[in-house]
Specification:
The chain has 287 residues and is mostly helical. The chain has eleven helices and two strands.
Length: 287
């Protein structure tokens, strides 16, 4: 009896060790995927360092100048509609450095942020390569194009954030004042943080259809729920558009809010497609 217990204990221990080894094997595979993604980010960061003078002057500081593409387009729209108040001739951005190593850390941090932004698509691809072997054939087919759509939505969000949200926010915040006795002067860290946060946050917000796709597959989110809460989403989007636009003009608010409305509606369509596919699978199983 004791011998049988000993054999059973050895077998159970063997199964436990096998499971542990499998877990550590997966952990090792994930580590190498992350290492390759990190190397790609380092490479992109080095490229940014090489072209840093142009990147800082044109890309980072671009939204702080009246010659920026967004401000010029607003001026042209105003001229075409014969409406005043669209042209932005001056941006009250006066940057200062308050730390000894401030400008040095500015270069390092900004290069790293841009390197990470450029490397995110490769990171998504590496994560997909890690997850893909664990999926069934049907799940792989259902997730076809995941990397492409995730990267496309991310860069669309980054562009929208950089060319729309960021310049309008900078113009509004730099000109906002509660008293004439207070002069607006911003640290370089504050400016970089604002540009990076607004740009990357919008890129992540544009991942909403991907998030809805995942949650719908898990049964957490349904198109019915999203349709019922549409009016709340509309209010939130309009509030965001009203805050970041430089003027109270409805046309400018519309430019900001339309892409967000479209994004929400696309997410509803994605949730609907997932639900239809689930119903079809259920019918095939019951047949």
């Amino acid at each position: 009896m004791s011998e049988n217990k000993l054999i059973k204990a050895i077998k159970d221990k063997g199964k436990t060790m096998e499971a542990e080894m499998s877990f550590f094997d997966h952990l090792e595979a994930l580590r190498w995927h992350l290492v390759r993604a990190s190397i790609a980010i380092v490479v992109f960061t080095c490229v940014v360092f090489y072209f840093y003078d142009w990147i800082f002057d044109t890309v980072i500081m671009g939204p702080s100048r009246p010659t920026f593409w967004t401000y010029r387009m607003l001026c042209e729209i105003g001229a075409a509609l014969h409406r005043s108040g669209f042209c932005i001739d001056k941006i009250n951005v006066h940057l200062i450095n308050t730390e000894m190593a401030g400008q040095f850390t500015l270069e390092i941090n900004s290069a790293l942020i841009i390197g990470i932004t450029l490397g995110i698509p490769y990171l998504i691809w590496e994560i997909w390569r890690f997850i893909k072997p664990a999926l069934h054939e049907k799940e792989r087919k259902a997730a076809t194009g995941f990397v492409f759509y995730a990267c496309m939505l991310f860069f669309l969000g980054v562009l929208f954030g950089y060319y729309v949200i960021t310049p309008m926010s900078i113009n509004f915040l730099s000109g906002f004042s509660v008293s004439d006795q207070i002069e607006n002067k911003f640290t370089v860290d504050s400016y970089l943080s604002s540009v990076a946060t607004l740009t990357l946050a919008t890129g992540l917000v544009f991942q909403l259809p991907i998030l809805v796709y995942i949650l719908s597959n898990l049964g957490i989110l349904t198109p019915k729920f999203m349709r019922e809460t549409r009016r709340y989403a509309i209010v939130i989007i309009l509030i965001i558009a009203a805050v970041v636009t430089p003027t109270p003009d409805m046309l400018t608010m519309t430019v900001v809010s339309i892409p967000l409305f479209v994004l929400y509606e696309v997410s509803i369509v994605v949730a609907g497609l997932v639900e239809k596919r689930k119903i079809k699978r259920h019918e095939e199983t019951m047949a």
